[in-house]
Amino acid sequence: MKLEIAARQLEALGNPTRLRVYRALVRAGADGLPVGRLQARIGIAASTLSHHLKRLVEAGLVTRERQATTLLCRAHYPTMNALIGFLADECCADAGCARDGEDSAA
Amino acid sequence: MKLEIAARQLEALGNPTRLRVYRALVRAGADGLPVGRLQARIGIAASTLSHHLKRLVEAGLVTRERQATTLLCRAHYPTMNALIGFLADECCADAGCARDGEDSAA
DNA sequence: CGCATATTTCGATTCATGTCGAAATAAACT
DNA sequence: AGTTTATTTCGACATGAATCGAAATATGCG
């Protein structure tokens, strides 16, 4: 059922707004970014951002952590690495990758 | 506007059925797979598969080519490579990737 | 030309998504 | 305790997605 999980993560990233959010978090690096900052930067309603953030968190791509009065969000790199691994592995990656039948039990 | 494109491709892969379809095509390798084969393998209605296939094609992840009476589908690797590149680049990838501020013009 | 096979398009249905504003909750400060 | 700031949850709405079966289209064969 690994495929289901990968699909869920891909879906989470497969929305322009969420991808923008996620990218902003990645760029923010280890320090993360408070929700409010994100909102100002991306320019959407707070409730909408919260909704998207929740989906990213549920997909394991982002972590949220209370930091006094604000909620600090951070990109969770291991998940992204695993996802890229899945794509590269299950779904090809390297230039060559023209492996014919492999385990495709016809 | 590259982000929009990446989001579109991620969304295309972000559905379990489509991801299954795509993976089947990748596994089929350079020979590709006719639609009918895919349908039998995945077990969904032909119309549903056609719909999903269309989305994968529109996202540039799959190519379709008439082969006499059947339509041969193939995974289009360059797109996947570019997508992985985008994720690795814009959205982190390598294990380390704890680059703090970089261009995050806070 | 008409039939058989392969695939898509159409129409319908059901459910999920993206979005917002307003109200509720959480945490800190006075 | 009350106020302010930060964020989420709620309710609503419009739009899009996923799915199917049936009908339409395309290709090759006899």
Which secondary-structure class do the elements of chain A indicate? alpha+beta
Low-confidence stretches of chain A: 95-106
Strand content of chain A: 5-15%
The two chains with the largest interface, and their residue counts, are: A-B, 48 and 48 residues
Q: How many separate helices of chain A?
A: 5
Describe the main β-sheet of chain A briefly.
3 strands, antiparallel
Supply Rg of chain A.
16 Å
Helix content of chain A: 55-70%
Strand order of the largest sheet of chain A: 1-3-2
Assembly state of the chains shown = homodimer
* CATH topology grouping of chain A: Arc Repressor Mutant, subunit A
Query: Which CATH class of chain A?
Result: Mainly Alpha
The counted number of beta strands of chain A is 3
Q: What is the averaged pLDDT score of chain A?
A: 85
Structure characterization notes:
The structure is a homodimer of 106-residue chains. The first copy, chain A, is an alpha+beta fold. Chain A has a single domain, classed as Orthogonal Bundle (Arc Repressor Mutant, subunit A). Helices cover 57% and strands 13% of the residues of chain A. The first copy, chain A, has 5 helices and 3 strands; from the N terminus they run ααβααββα. Chain A has helices spanning 2-13, 16-28, 35-42, 46-58, 77-90; strands at 33-34, 62-67, 70-75. In chain A, strands 1-3-2 form a 3-stranded antiparallel β-sheet. In chain A, a hairpin with a 2-residue loop joins strand 2 and strand 3. In chain A, helix 2 packs across helix 4 (46-58). Chain A starts with a helix and ends in a 16-residue tail after the last helix. The model of chain A is unreliable at 95-106 (pLDDT under 50). Chain B binds a DNA duplex (30 and 30 nucleotides) through residues 15, 17, 34-36, 39, 44-55, 66, 68-71.
